[in-house]
Amino acid sequence: MSKQFEGKTVVVTGGSKGIGRGIAKVFSEKGANVAIIARNLEEATKTAKELQGEHNSVNAYNADVTSNFSLEQVAQAIANDLGAIDIVCANAGIFPSASIEEMTEDQWNRVQNVNAKGTFFTVKAFLPYVKKADFGRFIVTSSITGPITGYAGWSHYGASKAAQLGFMRTAALELAKDNITINAVSPGNVFTEGLDGLGQDYLNSMAAAIPFKRLGTVEDIGHAAAFFASKEAGFVTGQTLVVDGGQILPESIE
């Protein structure tokens, strides 16, 4: 595999599992030094060891994306350990389910704090370091749910994912002067370890909504993030790439 990111440092929030792990894996395979940030340091450390490449480093860090101070501290630690920070993937997110009728204010706020405010805090904390890079990149993990589609029980999640894209577009205008791009990947139905216990019937129903009749992989999202991080994407900013196997296209279920 091409080592196109050799010598670059990539930060992935929520990188210990799921889509974040897939993003970290792809960048590690492409030669980058990767900093995995997660709330659970033990899980992050385990993932870092599993993704360690032969000629690059994968390190684990603990931080809470709902705390600007926590992210500022970890950004400084990563800069001290790995030097320049080139690419930051704001991936951390949660997706609990609750109907509007039953949802509490605390439940709503928790999702907004992690998904929307967490993206803002991530960009803000790492911006001073990314500004020093030859070409800086921010990549946001959004979703088709909210910006494009809806799903019962996820009104708070959908709102947070739409908010990420609104933030991203204005951020693109502000960051351009420093030769920094910011873009988003919007996954559809992707298989993660969190789906293991839901049963094959449930997985089949998810796959049925996709023209390819299969779920996406976390690496599919990682490769999309790698495109946005590449030199070739240097004139692309404020944009969203949907990676869903055509899930949003059908007018009706066939």
General description of the model:
This protein has 254 residues and is an alpha/beta fold. It has one domain (9-241): NAD(P)-binding Rossmann-like Domain (Rossmann fold, 3-Layer(aba) Sandwich). It is 42% helix and 15% strand. The protein is built from 7 helices and 7 strands. The protein has helices spanning 18-29, 41-51, 68-82, 105-130, 155-175, 200-208, 218-229; strands at 9-13, 33-38, 58-62, 87-90, 136-141, 180-187, 240-243. Strands 3-2-1-4-5-6-7 form a 7-stranded parallel beta sheet, sandwiched between helices. Helix 5 (155-175) links the parallel strand 5 (136-141) and strand 6 (180-187). The longest helix is centred in the middle third of the chain and has 26 residues, at 105-130. The radius of gyration is 17 Å and the shape is globular. The termini are far apart. The model has no long low-confidence stretch (mean pLDDT 95).
Keywords:
single chain; 254 residues; alpha/beta; Rossmann fold; seven-stranded parallel beta sheet; globular
SSE layout and pairings?
Blueprint: E1 9-13, H1 18-29, E2 33-38, H2 41-51, E3 58-62, H3 68-82, E4 87-90, H4 105-130, E5 136-141, H5 155-175, E6 180-187, H6 200-208, H7 218-229, E7 240-243
Parallel strand pairs: 1-2, 1-4, 2-3, 4-5, 5-6, 6-7
Category from helices, strands and their pairing: alpha/beta
Percent strand equals 5-15%
Order of helices and strands: EHEHEHEHEHEHHE
Largest sheet: number of strands, sense, barrel closure: 7 strands, parallel
Into which percent range does the helicity of residues fall? 40-55%
Look at the structure and give the CATH class: Alpha Beta
CATH architecture: 3-Layer(aba) Sandwich
Number of helices: 7
Low-confidence stretches: none
Shape: globular
End-to-end separation = 38 Å
What is Rg? 17 Å
The overall pLDDT average reads 95
What is the number of strand segments?
Answer: 7
Spatial ordering of strands, largest sheet: 3-2-1-4-5-6-7
- CATH topology call: Rossmann fold
User: Which homologous superfamily in CATH is the superfamily?
Assistant: NAD(P)-binding Rossmann-like Domain
In total, the number of domains comes to 1
